[in-house]
Design a protein that fits this description.
The protein is largely without helices or strands. 0% of the residues lie in helices and 7% in strands. A three-stranded parallel β-sheet has the order 1-2-3, with no helix packed on it. It is globular and about 35 Å long.
Amino acid sequence: MNSMFSGCILLESLNLFNFNVIKVKDMANMFSGCSSLTSINLSSFSTNNLENMNSMFSQCISIEFIILSNFNTLKVKDMAKIFEGCRALKSIDLSNFVTSTTENMNSMFSQ
């Protein structure tokens, strides 16, 4: 799913409730550059095999709310720049994130 919606600058909303992502390992840049996206709910994603989240929401400059409450990040090695440039971000719950095996968290929230 690397760069799947990357650069969709006019995309304002997205319903991914029924996406089956159980085997997905790479979500890097998945929504990067979606500058009109204001919120996204990915709580239905089952991410047990996810390894790469690098720049997943990078430059989503209008995004205010990201729901990742059920994300399993135990196998994620790269979270660098995941929220880079998300200047409008008001709320994000990362309480379920496990980063004990994460190798790269560089510039996660850099502006």
